From TrEMBL:
InterPro entries in the cross-refs: AraC-type_N, Homeodomain-like_sf, HTH_AraC
Domain of life: Bacteria
Protein name: AraC family transcriptional regulator
GO molecular function: DNA-binding transcription factor activity; transcription cis-regulatory region binding
Residue ranges occupied by any HTH araC/xylS-type domain in the UniProt entry: 238-336
Upper classification of the organism: Bacteria, Pseudomonadati, Pseudomonadota, Gammaproteobacteria, Alteromonadales
SUPFAM superfamilies associated with the record: Homeodomain-like
Record keywords, A-Z: DNA-binding, Transcription, Transcription regulation
């Protein structure tokens, strides 16, 4: 089983912006739904306070189930864009170009949420912005993934004044009965059963200028957020975990590759991990354990596909590892959680 995190996984209350209004528009009392997960209306009034990420996800799941709203994450996402990110959103909105905006967004995103990471990958032709939930969380990502994707799409459109054309959208869960709802909400139907929630677009859009950006305000906000930057997670294992998720399918995946991506020697990386009471092999095991649970419960991927995505050498190795994690074979685990 994955190790327990020492700090709570938190997200700013602003991530629930629009929740009260949306529920009331359906003639339902939001206070009842909030109480189910230990929240109340007063907590949602201070956008700069924090709630546990698991509470937010449970609220999305409970609301969707109680009100029979299978696309609730998409609905809530329509209310949100840069407005939920506070000072980070102001900084991003005052960058010169989309490239600088996304670099600052990924750099400071932890100020908004320490329970997930944003990764920006750029190759010759395309850019991929991925949302990665920390592997220590044992909660459904279905509506959380829909919400994150909806916010991401809205954010990119807002920053580029609707000039950007998205190449591909990705979601880690299976397709629901009516994928056309995604087209209506996002402009296209995502690719389902992917490794992570992600948005892909052509590299040329990185050069788009952001309208009405203020260089002086950008400078002031950069200084302010720079002071907060020292609150960023310093635990090296957290950073390694992100790299493992990103490069698990890489043909050269291993401790040497991850050390290189972190600009460290392999020996130095291993030494730092030992100081934090873990090893590279244990972190890989943690990530695989969490992702296996996620893919089995929320995707329609075959067991063989899941084994491949998690980079096991063969299906038997995956089955042995899964039985070590959860005590039963993956097929039985999926059957049990499908009821």
């Amino acid at each position: 089983m994955p190790r327990l995190t020492q700090a709570p996984d938190l997200i700013r209350v602003s991530a629930l912006h629009g929740y009260i209004e949306l529920i009331e528009s359906k003639l339902v009392n939001p206070d009842i739904l909030l109480s189910h997960v230990g929240l109340d209306r007063k907590q949602l009034q201070d956008a700069n306070s924090f709630v546990q990420y698991q509470q937010l996800i449970q609220l999305l799941e409970t609301t969707a189930k109680e009100l029979n709203l299978p696309y609730f994450g998409l609905e809530l996402g329509r209310w949100q864009s840069l407005n939920i990110l506070g000072s980070v959103g102001y900084l991003v909105g005052n960058c010169d170009t989309l490239e600088l905006a996304l670099k600052n967004l990924t750099k400071y995103y932890h100020i908004h949420q320490n329970s997930a990471d944003l990764l920006l990958e750029v190759d010759q032709n395309y850019v991929k912005l991925s949302f990665l939930v920390r592997s220590s969380l044992k909660v459904s990502v279905y509506h959380g993934a829909d919400l994150a994707l909806s916010v991401g799409v809205n954010l990119l459109k807002k920053l580029t004044d609707d000039q950007i054309k998205l190449h591909r959208l990705e979601l880690p869960h299976s397709c629901n009965e009516n994928p056309s709802v995604y087209r209506q909400a996002l402009g296209q139907v995502p690719v389902f059963n992917c490794a992570h929630t992600a948005v892909v677009f052509e590299k040329k859009y990185l050069k788009l200028a952001i309208k009405n950006s203020d260089k002086q305000l950008f400078s002031i906000l950069s200084q302010q957020l720079g002071l907060i930057q020292n609150t960023k997670r310093e635990n090296i294992s957290d950073h390694v975990e992100v790299m493992i998720k990103q490069y698990l399918l890489h043909e050269e995946f291993g401790v040497n590759l991850v050390a290189e991506k972190l600009s460290m020697s392999t020996r130095s990386l291993q030494r730092h991990l030992t100081k934090h009471g873990t090893t590279f092999r244990e972190l890989v095991d943690d990530v695989r354990c969490h992702l296996a649970h996620q893919y089995l419960i929320e995707s329609s991927l075959t067991l063989s596909n899941i084994s491949d995505i998690l980079s096991f050498s063969n299906y038997s190795e995956f089955t042995r590892s899964f039985k070590r994690w959860y005590g039963i074979p993956p097929r039985d685990y999926r059957k049990f959680h499908s009821h």
